[in-house]
Design brief:
With 317 residues, the protein is mainly α. The chain has 13 helices and 8 strands. The strands form 4 sheets. It has a two-stranded parallel sheet with strand order 1-6.
């Protein structure tokens, strides 16, 4: 979940305009944009990689580049904006708030390791809140086979409660996610390292984000059972983050509490920390995950997972 200086509605409008204008995009404009972005974030932008091309063009539009005239049209620094792709602030803020009732049971070091783990699936580093780490992961995401790439576009995307492809049913994706969370929870217990507990919390929080799963809408910001696991490969990265962007209200930044599903995600995070501090075994944890957090809507288990809701799909194909 990402914190933003602007309203999500404004970002979406800009991206929708970009989609209208994208027919005018040319290979020459792409090459010019690749060069400017390479100068700003370091490394080379591979125009042949679909996710890179989509990221580069939409990032440019999002941050004030005019893709047709190709000039820098805004005051924002690209590096500072690029790291907003990641939802580290909201995962940290929600997770650490959930841990407050248990502070007497956890040491300062344990709390710090929990904080690292909460962000790790987004920024797989032991200092995920540093700008150098975040920028290095922005670059690494574009490189197939790297950890950051696999966490978003590959098999490890289950750690964001998403499917890596449309080759699996929702039931298979759900079972894989539950198994992975169970393994992380066990590792936290056996090693006494709360980084793994934070990593186990991250997918469940993501499961309540509208661009990660499709859930039944119960009204009043409450989400029901899972209907489908979406695929990051089918999404535009900036559209992906709009439902997890902390809204701006009357010019002031809101709170993660204002996001759809946030209360349920918070309750999940708190429950997992409670399980850990009480020494509950992994069987209890996995039963909770299967029956509550990852409960599938009727008929969903055997349906093919993947795809994305229209509002999150790629702009450039």
């Amino acid at each position: 979940m990402a914190r933003s200086n602007g309203a999500g509605e404004q970002q979406t409008a800009a991206l929708n305009k970009a989609e209208t204008d994208s027919s005018e995009w040319t290979p020459e404009k792409q090459a010019a944009l690749d060069k400017v972005l390479a100068d700003k974030v370091g490394g080379a932008w591979d125009s042949e990689a679909p996710q890179t091309s989509d990221f580069a063009r939409s990032a440019a539009i999002f941050n004030g580049f005019d893709p047709n005239q190709f000039r820098y049209a805004g005051p924002s620094d690209f590096d500072a904006q690029a790291v907003k792709v990641y939802d580290v602030d909201t995962h940290r803020d929600m997770g650490m708030e959930a841990a407050k009732p248990f502070e007497s049971s956890l040491s300062k070091d344990e709390m710090n390791r929990l904080k690292v783990g909460l962000a790790w699936p987004d920024i797989p580093r032991d200092d995920p809140y540093s700008v150098p780490s975040q920028l290095s992961v922005v670059r690494e995401m574009r490189e197939p086979g790297t950890l950051a790439n696999m966490l978003h576009y590959g098999g490890l995307s289950v750690l964001h409660s998403m499917t890596p492809s449309s080759d699996f049913t929702n039931g298979e994706v759900r079972d894989t996610i539950v198994d992975q969370i169970g393994l992380l929870y066990q590792r936290a217990q056996t090693e006494g390292d709360l980084k793994y507990l934070g990593m186990a919390i991250h997918p469940g929080v993501d499961s309540y984000v509208l661009s990660h799963t499709v859930r039944e809408d119960l009204g009043n910001g409450q989400l029901g059972d899972i209907v489908n696991f979406q695929n990051y490969n089918d999404q535009n990265v900036f559209r992906h983050m709009t439902p997890e962007t902390v809204p701006t209200i009357d010019g002031d930044s809101g709170s993660w509490r204002d996001l759809p599903g946030a209360l349920q995600a918070f309750q999940y995070a708190q429950k997992m920390i409670e399980f850990y501090t009480q020494g509950e075994d992994v069987t209890t944890v996995k039963e909770y995950l299967q029956n509550e957090v990852y409960k599938l809507a009727p008929g969903a288990a055997d349906r093919q997972a993947g795809g994305t809701l229209p509002q999150y799909r790629k702009l450039f194909r």
